[in-house]
Design goal:
mainly alpha
């Protein structure tokens, strides 16, 4: 079956089938980016881009960002500070029941007169 006929059957344009990428090989740049990211764990793609430019790689920031994302490189987070357990932190004070600021009353606080009744009580 010819290419033209196959593209008509699948309903795809022939130019998209014949397309070849012109993008240069990123192998050496990718390896250097991984090495720099391993050395400087707290640097993101922007600071690594500056280091690559200083080394002589004529590379675009967006290209560094794409390679950084494709290699799944991330900035390593610092460890959080250890805090003493408090009432609001999860996991502590779990044995006690939940705190309620204003418990709902079980009975009405006052009894009102029915609507239409006089304000003063009749004398008997």
């Amino acid at each position: 079956m010819s290419e033209r006929r196959a593209c008509q059957v699948v309903k795809v344009d022939r130019t998209s089938i014949r397309y070849t990428s012109c993008r240069p090989d990123d192998g050496p740049l990718r390896e250097r980016l991984k090495a720099l990211a391993h050395e400087r764990r707290r640097f993101g793609y922007r600071r690594l881009h500056v280091l690559l430019r200083r080394e002589g790689h004529g590379v675009n920031r967006k290209r560094v960002q794409r390679l950084y994302r494709e290699e799944k490189l991330t900035v390593r987070r610092r460890g959080g500070r250890k805090r003493a357990p408090t009432k609001s932190s999860p996991g502590s004070w779990t044995a006690s029941p939940p705190y309620r600021a204003h418990p709902k009353p079980s009975a009405p606080a006052c009894i009102r007169a029915p609507p239409g009744a006089s304000r003063s009580w009749p004398a008997s």
